[in-house]
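We close this part of the discussion by returning to an individual protein. The amino acid sequence and the backbone structure tokens for this protein are reproduced below:
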Amino acid sequence: QVQLLESGGGLVQAGGSLRLSCAASGNIFTISIMGWYRQAPGKQRELVAGITRIGITNYADSVKGRFTISRDNADYTVYLQMNNLKPEDTAVYYCNARYNYGTSAWGQGTQVTVSS
């Protein structure tokens, strides 16, 4: 089992910044990829950013140049630094971890709201 605990969501004005954190616990030794997804009202859940165990990153086109995903030295926590936020970034953000050859664990979700 893998458990994910998220923090860092909130309300910001357009152009502001937030940093999301996701701490993994449990069977962390089998985790291959961690990342962030988001889901806005009326939209499907989409991948925002991901990072592999060796540090390869991937980003949605809509956030390239504005968001950065990173991890701590122990690889127990991942972060999503979100800069120059736009109203269209408003969504519930979910941390995700893939483990045991593709099994997925999900965080509870954290609300990010960007006002104009």
